[in-house]
Every structure is written in C-alpha cells, then in structure tokens.
Design goal:
Blueprint (H helix, E strand, L loop, with lengths): L2 H16 L7 H13 L7 H14 L5 H13 L5 H13 L6 H15 L3 H16 L7 H9 L1 H11 L11 H13 L5 H8 L9 H7 L3
Bound molecules: zinc ion.
C-alpha cells in the first residue's frame, strides 16, 4: 500500500474518532476499543484478557462499576518494559477505565493497538471497518421502515444469536448468522438495500454493530 493510503486511512479514522465527542455512548466507545484490543490477544497476559472481557460485560450491563474499578486499578499497576507489550496492555487498560470520553479514548486505544500490529496500515484499515460497523448508524434514516421488521420475533432471536456469536479471542461476530438475519428481515418485510447489504456483505461485524443495536434497542 502507498504512503498516501497510509496517511489517508490514519487521517480519516482519527478525524472520525475525534468527531464522536458528544454523539455516541460510552458503551459503543468501549466496545470499539475492545474489538481493537482483541486483535492483540496473543500479546496480552491472562489478567489483561480478563480486563477486556470484563469491559465488554460492563458495556452490556452485566458487571458492576466496582468490578470495573477493581480491574482498572489492577491493570494500571503493572509495569512492562517491552514496547509492543506496553502498547497492548495500555490499550487493554484504557478499555476498563471507568470514565471514557469518546474521541480521545477511542483514538488512544486504536493508536496503541495499531502499534502492536505487524502492519500498521492493515490494522488501521480494519479499525476503520469496525468504526463503520459501529458508528455508521443508519437507524435514524430508516426509522419508520425498520420499525415493523425489528419487532419480528424471528428477527430479534437471530439478532441475539448474532450478538452472542463473538468468535473469541477475536471480537468479530459470525457472518453466517448475519446472512440468516438478512433472510429474516426480508421475510418480515424489510426491503432496504443498505440494511440487507450490511448483513450480506463481507465487512466484519463486532459488538456495537449499529443494526444489531437498532433491533435489540441497545444504545
Ligand atoms: Zn454490523
């Protein structure tokens, strides 16, 4: 890939992340960070892997604020000397910060995570795809057309299965389940190309995916 591409993807991603301030939830930022950090799984010790899992559970309201605080204080205490491990662990510990601000936090986690990757450009490109999956939210554009299909029981059941289909240690969700989701949405009367293509395309989905959040009423 050319240098021009490298500058483009860096600039585009950083600019988009900084524009998130005040426009998205802490949950979505945390899930974006966890998806980036999961790509560095081999560089993380058990304690940091647990921190990332706990951050995801906190984002989904499954663990308490005090559990998060405990994980954060443990994560902040460890001193590391090797540069790449330092970056991987810094990114993981940002995920369990009790308070995260949108643009700055997302940018730090993505930046540290990309430092760990073998190829910076490829990593930033994947991060941009995760960004698009979570934050390119078309819910408001199709609010009325999606209302009825999103109430369909089969659609909701498959959306839950998709959310739970995380391929650990990678944070990506199972694309096959999204294929089934597209079929169910169509059966329920959805004809919106952008929505059906979001399910049937080859781009990755992670927790925080705008379409799943729309169906499952997550913010
Ligand atoms: Zn998605």
């Amino acid at each position: 890939m050319s240098n021009e591409f490298s500058i483009d993807v860096d600039f585009v991603l950083d600019t988009k992340l900084m524009k998130l301030d005040g426009k998205t939830s802490q949950r979505k930022i945390r899930l974006f960070g966890c998806a980036c950090v999961r790509r560095n799984w081999p560089m993380l010790t058990q304690m940091y892997r647990r921190s990332v899992e706990l951050a995801e559970q906190f984002a989904d309201g499954k663990v308490s604020h005090s559990d998060l605080l405990q994980a954060w204080s443990k994560a902040e205490r460890v001193a590391i000397s090797k540069y790449k491990q330092k970056c991987a662990r810094a990114a993981a510990s940002w995920c369990v910060r009790p308070q995260i601000n949108a643009g700055g936090t997302a940018r730090s986690i993505a930046g540290f995570s990309a430092q760990v990757a073998a190829d910076w450009e490829s990593e930033r490109t994947i991060q941009l795809k995760y960004f698009q999956d979570i934050f390119f939210d078309s819910t408001s554009k199709y609010e009325s057309e999606l209302q009825f299909p999103c109430k369909d029981e089969t659609v909701k059941r498959i959306a839950i299965a998709a959310y739970d289909s995380q391929q650990s240690p990678r944070g990506e969700l199972d694309g096959h389940v999204f294929g089934a989701l597209a079929d169910a949405l169509e059966e329920a009367g959805c004809t919106i190309d952008e929505v059906l293509n979001h399910c049937r395309g080859n781009e990755p989905h992670v927790r925080g995916c705008w379409l799943l959040d729309c169906i499952l009423k997550f913010k």
